[in-house]
Amino acid sequence: MSREKAGYRDTIAQLNEMFPDKGCLSKPETAKFLGVHRNTLDRYVKTGKIRFNDLSLISKADLARQICT
Asked: Is residue 3 part of a domain?
């Protein structure tokens, strides 16, 4: 059984605080949370696992996994 990465729960808590009513985030929302431009986001975070109306969405859990060390 795999273990959670360090900081995962804290990151989920921050995401839930900033976006309480969403399960998935768009690129602009993800960039806002990380404090980077949308173009920079493409280099560091893999989005697009979920497609909805031509938007690439990423779940909060997947985002937290990717940005935690």
From this structure: no
